[in-house]
Amino acid sequence: MKLEVREGSFQYGSGKALFKNISFSIKEGEILTILGPNGVGKTTLLKCVTGMMPWKYGKTILDGTPLDTMKKTSIWQKISYIPQSHNVVFPYKVLEMVLMGRAPYINVFSMPSKKDIRMAEQTLETVGIAHLAGKPCSKISGGELQLVLIARALASEPLVLILDEPESHLDFRNQLTMFKLLQTLAEKKQLSCIINTHYPDHALRISHKTLMLAHGNQHLFGKTREVINEANIESFFKVNTKIVTIKQNGKDIKSIVALSHE
Ligand SMILES: Nc1ncnc2c1ncn2[C@@H]1O[C@H](COP(=O)(O)OP(=O)(O)OP(=O)(O)O)[C@@H](O)[C@H]1O
């Protein structure tokens, strides 16, 4: 599904504009990462993209249809949003939590069907946490909860998956597992993904496109390998870096080494 943001602008109340005239788009099977310093507006931007907060100016367009003309249930059947996890204690078991992802398909007065339960179980397996199905969400770790939230989002069979700092709480190995999963879903199921991250390395590794934000309404959108370079990182993050390339099994893997900051 093609998601486009056209000339998006936003500010809280009568404060200063957080961002002005931002435009970007992703197609089926593409991964977009959003990078930028703390407080620049990445989470707010995702909320505007999904319609949880209204754009001041501009719009989000899904396959040619402006989001603000669509019904909420129709939007949430297409888009799944995973907020930053804050270790909130949910009184539900993991399987019940993932079943909530089926909500856009379940009538308000109905119980989940066998198909819904099977889908939730399959999703737990896909994410590699089937063994947690019967555990209360209040008794799992922060990283496990993050994986449960990803499973819940996938259970709704979205066409667009939006994740706010999905690697927070995940250990080194689970970060790789999650990124591999997102790449597979993008490649095999043509899922479109938008990911907020604090790690330019991760953006380089998995995304086709990058939107970089800086304070003072600066932004840059384009192909990841064009947007992420030493000069742009210095300009947007005020950090001096060196991008190094390692050859592994005939593939170039790039990594960003921080050298100094102002
Ligand atoms: N509900 C709100 N009302 C007013 N200002 C807010 C509100 N939520 C966030 N802000 C402010 O808007 C700015 C952007 O916040 P946001 O959480 O979108 O940034 P971010 O780039 O996601 O930050 P981080 O990288 O630290 O998670 C910050 O200065 C924040 O203090």
From TrEMBL:
InterPro entries: AAA+_ATPase, ABC_transporter-like_ATP-bd, ABC_transporter-like_CS, Metal_Ion_Import_ABC, P-loop_NTPase. Residues 3-240 form the ABC transporter domain. SUPFAM superfamilies: P-loop containing nucleoside triphosphate hydrolases. Keywords: ATP-binding, Nucleotide-binding, Transport. One of its GO terms (molecular function) is ATP binding. PROSITE patterns: ABC_TRANSPORTER_1, ABC_TRANSPORTER_2. The keyword Nucleotide-binding applies. This is Iron complex transport system ATP-binding protein. It comes from Desulfocicer vacuolatum DSM 3385.
